[in-house]
Amino acid sequence: MDKIYIRSKHFTYDELQTVIKQLKELNYEWITNIDYIGSSDSEEIDVTFSLLKEDLGEFLSVVFSCGYFYAFEK
User: Fold this and answer.
1) Which H helix or E strand runs over 3?
2) Predicted confidence (pLDDT) per residue in 5-38, tens digit
3) Inter-residue contact 53 to 4 (CB < 8 Å)
4) Nearest Cα to Cα of residue 3 among 36, 33, 23, 37
């Protein structure tokens, strides 16, 4: 099983908290590990997700749907 790592600097702290919250609420915690959360001088933070290659499509759909949850919470 191949593992892949996705690094992004395009999440704000609040957006990342929404992703973490929704992964728990939707029982998708199994799909990814958050390996690193870094801070920076900008509003956006550095985060690295690790997951199995075969789960990539499902991971992307879950993260995409988290954007909707974040928008509705605001």
Assistant:
1) strand 3-12
2) 999 988 888 888 888 888 898 888 899 999 988 8
3) yes
4) 33
